[in-house]
Specification:
Strand order of the largest sheet: 4-3-8-7
Strand content: 25-35%
Number of strands: 8
Helix content: 10-25%
Number of helices: 2
Order of helices and strands: HEEEEEEEEH
Structural class: alpha+beta
Low-confidence stretches: 12-21, 144-160
Largest sheet: 4 strands, antiparallel
Distance between the termini: 21 Å
Oligomer: single chain
Length: 162
């Protein structure tokens, strides 16, 4: 017999919480436009033009989290601006090892450095910077990064009600 859709929901919820060990797709944009160079493989679009389209998508082979950073710029004339940056979370570190008389560079990914959610970083008298991290594909698009755990909880609730 084939399982019904209702019977498949726990399986789908369970498998949707697993992510590959390395690599995720995230949105990438910068506070300010960067001109393209000849050897540049991806576009560096400004976040002021962010629309969630494919031109902002980037592969993050050395990351398992996406990042979104918000910070406030204060200008001398009293104006303020909220600035956003999106991209891959910095999780990789490199070191060199000697193997068979040859130095090799090893890239490792620290998978435990971040958790889903947002934190505020205070730097002296400057306004705090908000860093948001999330671990699902293209999760750094929203104005506030949301974990897919809420979605899983909701689906689980619907499953038990039905």
């Amino acid at each position: 017999m084939f399982p019904t859709v209702i019977q498949l929901i726990p399986f789908l919820l369970f498998t949707s919480t697993f992510f590959p060990v390395f690599g995720i797709q995230c949105y990438r944009c910068l506070p300010k436009a960067v001109p393209n160079t000849n050897n540049q493989t991806t576009s560096l679009e400004p976040c002021s033009q962010f629309d969630g389209s494919s031109k902002f998508v980037i592969d993050c082979p050395l990351s398992t989290f996406c990042m979104k950073r918000n910070f406030k710029l204060e200008f001398p004339d009293g104006r303020n601006a909220i600035v956003t940056e999106r991209g891959c979370a910095q999780q990789s570190f490199s070191y060199r090892v000697l193997k068979r008389g040859q130095w090799q560079t090893i890239n490792d990914v620290n998978e435990t450095i971040y958790q889903d959610g947002c934190i505020l970083e205070h730097q002296g008298t400057k306004p705090p910077t908000q860093y948001c991290y999330c671990s699902s594909r293209l999760c750094n698009a929203a104005s506030t990064v949301q974990s897919n755990l809420l979605i899983c909880f909701f689906l689980l609730l619907v499953y038990y009600i039905l």
